[in-house]
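Ligand-bound model needed. N-(iminomethyl)-L-glutamic acid.
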Amino acid sequence: MDVLDLLVRNTSEVLTVEGSHRERAEDALTPRPGAVVGVREGRIAYVGPEAGLPTGAVGPGTEVVDAQGGFVGPGFVDPHTHLVFAGERSAEFDLRNQGATYLEIAKAGGGIAGTVRATRAASEEELVRLALPRTKRLLEQGVTTAEVKSGYGLDLATELKMLRAVRRLGTLTPLELVPTLLCAHAVPEEYRGKREDYVRLCIEEILPAVAREGLARFCDVFVEDSAFTVDEARRILSAGRALGMVPRLHADQLTACGASELAAELGAATADHLEQVTDAGLKALADANVTAVLVPTSTLFLRMRPYAPGRRIRDAGLNVALGTNVNPGSAMSENTALALGLACLENGLTAAEAYWGATRGAAMSLGLQRHGRLTVGDAGDLVVFSCASYRHLPYHLGVAHARVVVKAGRIAVRQQMESCA
Ligand code: NIG
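Prediction:
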């Protein structure tokens, strides 16, 4: 065997997460007690007992990381973020805590529209500068790949600016970014009373321009009474698909509006949110093998009930992914540990199911075959935690335990941390 670039040893266990969402999550995590992990040329090259390392695997150039009895797992994959934006909405947070609702604030000209105004006014460089610390906070949680949506431009120039900012950001951070076009996030203020014109702008100008520059892998629509109808979403997402962008949907968040059924009809990669999903919607998603993306931090942050029925979704056989949904309006939090905790406390997942959702489940939702898993040949993205078991992550609510974060075989984060549990 060639010399490893990096070796992680002295682990409690390594979770290779090589099973399937159709089996018990505890089994799918595939724990390897006391294993070591070797990385070479950015890929996993060895997982197994230290005694089984081939001669010559460790040389003077091998960086040896002592896990100090912590567990090791794949880098987290965040399947739903709105990382790039300008401005902030802490006043709305206060208003909601006094009883105002997300929709009331939006109707009064705040909400997404407020972030759109700030984002339109910012330069591409400014958007990158503002987003960079957010990528750092995600990395510190152990996230090594994140999907990023546009959607605070809502015009051709600003949607392009946002996605170019995502592309530039990806060259400045170790965090790997997967871009999604969300021009149908809201009908912009200047199109009030002319929504059909905006839908046409999306289909005829924004989607083709984004496709020409190769700026997005996915396209997304916020399907909601207050945003886009099922028919409008069908047209936009079908146009996106024809241009090579795979559909994802903001589905059944505030009302049950047929979005899950549409996700199934379109064979979308994901239906995200699902707080209000109906039994019929759930069955449609399961039959069409659509991944459910849970974002419980938003449900908490908006003080809404119910949480998405994660238990029923998982029991229906869906792949369940878990994201932070970091954004300035409904989830101003890069805290993956909190999302894991809420997925257990409020969505009804087990710790293993939540962990699956933030690793392999999320990678699958983004079509990333070699992410969120630690088998030979997979991406060399891994996290050395300061605790001995993944069960500690949701339990120690909202506290990050990522001691060393490795992206593509290189150490991206190293944090001083006492060992825990
Ligand atoms: O996923 N629901 C729509 N979009 C975001 C919130 C965006 C915002 O309020 O700025 C979400 O929760």
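The first strand starts at residue 6 and ends at 9.
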